[in-house]
Amino acid sequence: MDYTYNETLRINLEGSFNLREISGYNGPLGKIAPGLIFRSDHLGRLTESDIELVKGLNIKSFIDLRTDKEATNQGTYPDELLAEATRHHISMIDISANYELARGEAGKEYIYNRYVEMLTFGKDNIARVFKTIAGHTEGALLFHCAVGKDRTGIIAALLLEALSIERLQIIADYAATKRAMENFQMWLQEVAPDELEKIRDVAPIILGSREEDMDRTLIFLDKNHGGAVAYLNEIGIEEAEIDVIRDRYLL
Question: Using N-to-C axis directions, what is the helix angle for 211-225 and 151-162, rounded to 10°?
Fold first, then answer.
């Protein structure tokens, strides 16, 4: 079957390019409930009107996947968002862009290889993220990294697999970042044109969100760990915790 991404899940803001609701996806165990899960890029650029909109989403847990250095350089959160919410800082493995590795023929493997690195060497913090998700009980939850593509994409894919969402929908959710990255490059052209020029030739790789990269990553989990749920079990997430996540987020 085919699946077309539902663009109404995207929340248009001035200071964030990739804030999206994760809902409506379905699988054999049910459909994801609306208004409970969000994914995004970092929130350090939000305008006053953005802040009011995000406050209206009733987010009570923010999971920040960035490194300390990124959080310092990019900004953390407007105080208004944490007045009645908690920020959980769980730094995923840093896969900062390596422009040399992303060039040429070898660049086609760049993103997939980074995802395998994350899953292989970032197990402890991935486990911390999922224990935080399982422990979240009130309001909505949002997880994010710097641009909301790679670290956020891996957590989203693992979560959607744990919820038994059909794989075409998981891949479409990942690939929906393409549009956000186009907007990000337009913003970069205005505020940091030298940086954009530096990455222009590798932007399709560094900022790309290709379906085949996520498809291959999920196949990697199938072949090497018996699937995403088995991987989560392997890194310390108990079946009871996965059941809690399913009970909370599936209709």
Answer: 60
